[in-house]
Amino acid sequence: MVDTAAVQQALANLATRLATPVDFINIHRANKDEAKRNPQYRSMRYGSFLHAYGPFEMFFNELIGAHGGPRQGTPATMDRIRERIAQHLQIPNVTRQWQARVRTQSLPGRGGRWLWTTIQTRQLGDYLRDAKAVRNRLAHGDDPHTAPNTSGTPYDRKDGRTSITLMWVEGFVQATQDLATITALELINDTTLIPDWPVPPRTGVSANPPPPPYALTR
Length: 218
Known about the structure:
- This protein has seven helices and four strands; from the N terminus they run αααααββαββα.
- By secondary structure, it is mainly alpha-helical.
- The strands form two sheets. It has a two-stranded antiparallel sheet with strand order 1-2. Strands 3-4 form a two-stranded antiparallel sheet.
């Protein structure tokens, strides 16, 4: 039986922890002109990403740990989360309704804009594996530009390598919120109290993400 209080607590913890990466984005956005001149600001994308990825992974480990499973060691990939939740919470295929709003690299004809889109199924699985690869490289002192771009969402550099940008990280923060919400709805249905998720100030292109995908689970 799913522990409703444990699910709600994991959601609340995630919302609290995501305030830090959102702060990074806020600071960068509030100092746009300085960020363009000062290369030190480029590091903020990595700091904000790591501060988003850790809580996202922890959300699922908290859920699994609260139901008799390991409290760490479950990577934030679709396959492993689906397997562990089926094993310890007896909810099969919890990822079946997963969709997430993300920001994708600028393509020809977009005028350099990182647009919002909603991804699911195979592309979403690739997206999470790409994110895990970037996280692993950063955590172990490797070059994050060598991470794969199977999902096609990070930036493809002219030198053939990959780069995440602050816009991509903003999309990742949104994706974590969408996936956590959908997961909670799958686990405890209409009793779910969705947190007041932190989001950075949004103007221009960033102000118009698609509608939330989690109404589809109800």
